[in-house]
Write a structure and sequence with these properties.
5 helices, single chain, 161 residues
Length: 161
Amino acid sequence: MFTFTDGIPSQAICRAPADRKNGATTGARNPDGTFAPGNPGRPQGSRHRATQATLALLDGDAEALTRKAVEMALEGDSAALRLCLERIAPPRKDAPVEFALPVMASAQDATTAAAAILAAVANAELTPAEGSHVMALVDAYRRTLEATELETRIIALEQRK
């Protein structure tokens, strides 16, 4: 059985340990200006009191609420329909793209790859955002190739000595 305190079930109230530094018991600042050890904050994974209360109230009714939302959607309620569809098939955040990209064997090949990406964006094969993401990948790969080429040169120079 629940007892309520300020509208919140007592089982849902988080209580801080008695030895926790809080308010007046928190130390002053360190000489370097940073805060002294004090209130560590809410433990990782813990939930806000309002969230805990909401979950406690909805605990047994989640299935009935879901069923009612589906019924309302089937009756033509557009808001309920949107809610159901968002849960069934959420919007895609990222999708694979296909376009011709030349092989990059050296850092100089990045110029050809960048030109291919710009052409794909210009021809509407890629969106500007997709082109930007692919360009960032090409740039990272180019930097890796440059670092590998420099390492090879340094090793060759060291072996000559």
